[in-house]
Write a structure and sequence with these properties.
With 103 residues, the chain is mostly helical. 51% of the residues lie in helices and 11% in strands. It has a domain of 61 residues: Multidrug-efflux Transporter Regulator, Chain: A, Domain 2 (Orthogonal Bundle).
């Protein structure tokens, strides 16, 4: 069976595969690195991290990470600095200034 338009088939084969990161359910490490702004090496090290391993799937040697699972995993590292800490520092400094004036 002959192909009707072999030039088109060649063009399709040579077109680089682009993944829409916003809609991809599973990402390989390269796509995950682009999505997360983390290096591939750092992500690969997280796969075997003893305290909080990155959840992943290994399909015939290919490592895939669910974007939703990655987002949940990453949210476990969120740190919020308490705003009261700054207020306490200011109060301590002001208290120290008033003590010096009264002495």
């Amino acid at each position: 069976m002959a192909l009707r338009n072999p030039e088109r088939v060649t063009a399709i084969k040579e077109t680089p595969r682009r993944i829409d990161i916003a809609s991809a359910g599973y990402l390989d490490l390269r796509s995950l690195a682009a999505y997360s702004s983390c290096s591939i090496r750092w992500l690969r090290d997280r796969l075997t991290d003893s305290s909080a391993p990155l959840p992943h799937y290994r399909v015939e040697g290919k490592i895939l990470v669910s974007r939703a699972e990655f987002d949940m995993w990453m949210s476990g590292f969120r740190r919020i600095r308490e705003s009261t800490a700054i207020g306490t520092i200011v109060d301590d400094v002001l208290a120290g200034l008033f003590e010096k004036k009264n002495s």
